């Protein structure tokens, strides 16, 4: 879930009401130490696109979510700089591409000799194209749906078929999947199917929310990584489910949540994306609250991820919270 600057004050207040309950040991947690070099990266709902020796970071911008989507570039996942390809680093800009407000949750990939970005604006999903991962990306209009949807993720299966995972925000956030065409201009509405709803206790602490899908395939099994609860809540967290088909049915992992304030020590840990380095190392980029006392602007963090053998079932997806570090810009 994302947020507009216009409701910042209201959200800060929420943290102190029953919507943002703290655990008994929260008072003993210390704030993160000052960053000695550079400045924190404030990209919520982040995604990282590795391409030709560089890393491109996009997200829901902590400073200007109604202006568009910016891109940061790094050679090593640590030395991040705002792109200089366009003014203020915007890869998508309001009014130039589809949308006038609420630019959220991008995903970027390469196909058809182009670069594509799926993103949210005006609580609708658009897919824009560009000739560079730094943009500018353009989309004339959103994908045609019969309801409002957010949090797009396009998955490419080994047989060449493509799927759009997305979140229906009607009466609680729920994750759906539908087939999408090769040009990324339309879904098959008749194929649309429900994947995940919030049902487990950790998923419904503040609201019935399941969102932020990422899908990967490992040893013939599909893994749907998602976030649940509510982004305002300190107990916002990450879980995953497995299936033998991209359509499901999905079985939630018994060890959920696999990333949360309980194991990271960071409030609001959630809504990110998996990516793999050229050497095969896997990472999960995600956001946390700014601090124990403030939700916004949300900070961007990274952890290593891996699969661990699980006799009698699918391999387990593990987040190495000991590897967690916050992204920052190079001075």
TrEMBL record:
The UniProt keyword set, sorted, is:
Carbohydrate metabolism, Glycosidase, Hydrolase, Polysaccharide degradation, Xylan degradation
Pfam families given in the database record? Glyco_hydro_43 (PF04616)
The protein here is known as Glycoside hydrolase family 43 protein
Recorded hits in PANTHER family, A to Z, give:
ENDO-1,4-BETA-XYLANASE, PUTATIVE (AFU_ORTHOLOGUE AFUA_2G04480)-RELATED
Keyword Hydrolase applies: yes
- The superkingdom of the source organism is Bacteria
Organismal lineage: Bacteria, Pseudomonadati, Bacteroidota, Chitinophagia, Chitinophagales
GO MF terms, alphabetically ordered:
hydrolase activity
Residue ranges the record marks as coiled coil: none
Write the signal peptide boundaries.
none
| Keyword Hydrolase found | yes
Q: Which family does it belong to?
A: Belongs to the glycosyl hydrolase 43 family.
């Amino acid at each position: 879930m994302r947020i507009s600057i216009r409701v910042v004050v209201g959200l800060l207040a929420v943290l102190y009401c029953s919507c943002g309950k703290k655990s008994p040991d929260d008072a003993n947690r210390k704030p993160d130490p000052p960053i000695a070099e550079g400045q924190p990266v404030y990209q919520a709902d982040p995604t990282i696109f590795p391409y030709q020796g560089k890393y491109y970071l996009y997200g829901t911008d902590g400073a200007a979510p109604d202006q568009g989507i910016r891109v940061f570039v790094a050679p090593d996942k640590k030395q991040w700089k705002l792109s200089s390809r366009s003014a203020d680093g915007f890869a998508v800009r309001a009014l130039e591409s589809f949308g006038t407000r609420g630019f959220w949750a991008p995903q970027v990939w390469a196909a058809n000799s182009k670069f594509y970005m799926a993103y949210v604006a005006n609580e609708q999903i658009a897919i824009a194209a560009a000739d560079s991962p730094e943009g500018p990306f353009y989309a004339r209009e959103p994908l045609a749906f019969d309801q409002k949807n957010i949090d797009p993720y396009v998955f490419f299966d080994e047989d060449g078929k493509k799927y759009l995972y997305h979140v229906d925000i009607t009466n609680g956030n729920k994750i759906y999947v539908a087939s999408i065409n090769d040009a990324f201009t339309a879904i098959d509405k008749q194929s649309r199917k429900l994947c995940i709803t919030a049902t487990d206790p950790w998923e419904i602490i503040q609201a019935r929310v399941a969102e932020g899908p990422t899908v990967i395939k490992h040893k013939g099994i599909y893994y749907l990584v998602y976030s649940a609860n509510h982004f305002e809540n300190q107990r916002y967290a990450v879980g995953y489910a497995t299936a033998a088909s991209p359509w499901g049915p999905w079985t939630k992992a018994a060890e959920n949540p696999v990333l949360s304030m309980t194991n990271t020590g960071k409030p609001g840990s959630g809504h990110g994306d998996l990516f793999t380095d050229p050497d095969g190392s896997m990472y999960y980029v995600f956001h946390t609250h700014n601090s124990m006392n403030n939700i916004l602007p949300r900070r961007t963090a990274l952890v290593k991820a891996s699969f661990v053998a699980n006799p009698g079932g699918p391999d387990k997806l593990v987040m190495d919270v000991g590897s967690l570090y916050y992204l920052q810009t190079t001075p």
